[in-house]
Design brief:
The chain is mainly α. The chain is 73% helix and 0% strand. It has 14 helices and no strands.
C-alpha cells in the first residue's frame, strides 16, 4: 500500500492542499501523516488498543523494526532533525485515548489537542525546513486548531468509540458517550458546546495563519490553503442545523474546495 493512501483517504483536505507542495516534500509529509494515522487507528480499535499501541511504541524504540512505516518515519525524523520531544508527546497523547477520556475544561481540551495534533504541526514545520523559532509555536497552534475542528465535527463518531472530548464545563449536565449514542441528551445544549469549540479554534487558526510568513515561500500557499479548508468545516458546523449535524458528517465538497482554492489564492497574493 502506498503511504500516500493514508493522506488521500483520511486527510482529504491535506491531500488537496498537498498537491501544491513539491513532490519530495509532499512525499515526506505523507510519511509523517501515515505514521501518526496508524498510531491513532490502533487506539481506535477498542479490542486490546493499549496492548497494540504499546507494541507500536516499543517497535518504534527498537533500533531495527519490521514495520515499513516506522522505518520510513525514522528516516525523515533524522533527515529533518525532528526533536524526540514531539514524537514522545504524540505517543503520550495517543495513549490517553486508551483510557476513559474525561475533559473537564477549555485548558484540558487545548492540552489534549497539543499532544495529538499540535505535535504533528511541529513535526511538519521541521519537514518544511523552517528555521525561524516562532514558526514552531504557530505550527503547533495550527495543529491545535485543526484538532479542535475534528473534535467539534466528530462528537457522534467519537461517542460510538466510548469517548467524549467536550469539556464538562461547557455542559449544564454531565453527558456521557452512551447518552449521545442512545440519543438521550439535549441537542441544543450539546450543539452550543460544539459551537464553543469552533469559536476557540478560531483563535488558533489566526495564530497558525500568522505564522505562515515564517515558512519558506514555496510552502506558504499550501499551508494557507490547508488551514482555510479545515477552518471551513468549522464554519459549516456553526451554520448547520441540528438534524444535519447529528445525522450526517460535515465536510467540504469538491466544488467548494475548488472555490476556496481560487479564493485563497487571491487572498494569499494580497496578504503574503
Amino acid at each position: 500500500m502506498k503511504l500516500e493512501f493514508y493522506i488521500k483517504y483520511y486527510g482529504k483536505s491535506f491531500y488537496w492542499a498537498g498537491k501544491f507542495l513539491k513532490k519530495d516534500v509532499f512525499a515526506d509529509c505523507a510519511i509523517l501523516y501515515a505514521f501518526c494515522r496508524i498510531a491513532d487507528d490502533l487506539v481506535d480499535e477498542n479490542k486490546n488498543s493499549k496492548t497494540k499501541i504499546d507494541k507500536f511504541i516499543k517497535d518504534y524504540s527498537n533500533i531495527k523494526s519490521k514495520n515499513i512505516i516506522i522505518n520510513k518515519f525514522k528516516k525523515i525524523k533524522k533527515k529533518y532533525n525532528i526533536p524526540n520531544k514531539f514524537v514522545n508527546d504524540l505517543f503520550y497523547g495517543v495513549k490517553l485515548d486508551t483510557k476513559i477520556v474525561k475533559i473537564k475544561s477549555e485548558k484540558e481540551i487545548i492540552e489534549y489537542s497539543y499532544y495529538v495534533a499540535g505535535t504533528v504541526g511541529a513535526m511538519m514545520a521541521h519537514i518544511f525546513s523552517t528555521t525561524h523559532p516562532k514558526a514552531i509555536k504557530h505550527a503547533i497552534d495550527l495543529g491545535i486548531a485543526m484538532q479542535l475542528t475534528n473534535i467539534a465535527r466528530d462528537v457522534v463518531a467519537d461517542a460510538k468509540l466510548g469517548r467524549i472530548y467536550l469539556p464538562q464545563t461547557f455542559l449544564k449536565k454531565n453527558i456521557n458517550a452512551k447518552d449521545i449514542v442512545n440519543d438521550n441528551f439535549d441537542r441544543n445544549e450539546l450543539f452550543s458546546a460544539i459551537n464553543k469549540i469552533i469559536i476557540i479554534s478560531e483563535k488558533f487558526y489566526k495564530s497558525g495563519n500568522n505564522g505562515i510568513k515564517y515558512l519558506p515561500w514555496t510552502i506558504r500557499y499550501p499551508i494557507f490553503l490547508a488551514s482555510s479548508l479545515y477552518e471551513r468545516i468549522g464554519i459549516k458546523i456553526i451554520n448547520s442545523n441540528l438534524n444535519k449535524y447529528f445525522n450526517s458528517r460535515i465536510y467540504v465538497g469538491f466544488f467548494e474546495k475548488l472555490f476556496i482554492t481560487l479564493k485563497t489564492f487571491f487572498i494569499f497574493n494580497f496578504k503574503y
